[in-house]
Design goal:
single chain; alpha+beta; elongated
């Protein structure tokens, strides 16, 4: 079991990512400083998002979200009702994928 001591490491971006061990309260004030000198990770974080960072997705009808929100047993029963083979041994992701494939046909 982990013990929360309130001691964390932050990284100085002006000195090549050198770590500084300090208390969480102090770290919050360092990280909130407008200079941007301190970071919670040793690698510098980009300030902007690249325009090509998104990915195209297919049409969303909400059916997949509805299936993912179902309880596992209910989803399993619906898959059996749809006639999906092996529904008893599938995990949640497999059931959702199988139900979506069945809906496309």
């Amino acid at each position: 079991m982990a013990v929360d001591t309130g001691i964390i490491k932050i990284y100085d971006l002006l000195n090549g990512g050198e770590p500084l061990t300090c208390h969480r309260i102090d770290a919050r004030s360092f990280l909130a400083h407008p200079s941007g000198r301190w970071s919670a990770s040793p690698k510098a974080v980009e300030k902007s998002v690249a325009p090509s960072s998104g990915a195209e997705t297919g049409e969303d009808t909400g059916e997949e979200m509805r299936l993912k929100a179902m309880h596992f047993k209910t989803l399993q029963a619906a898959a059996k009702k749809e006639g999906i083979p092996g529904a008893e041994s599938m995990d949640r992701a497999g059931l959702v994928n199988a139900m979506m494939e069945k809906a496309k046909v």
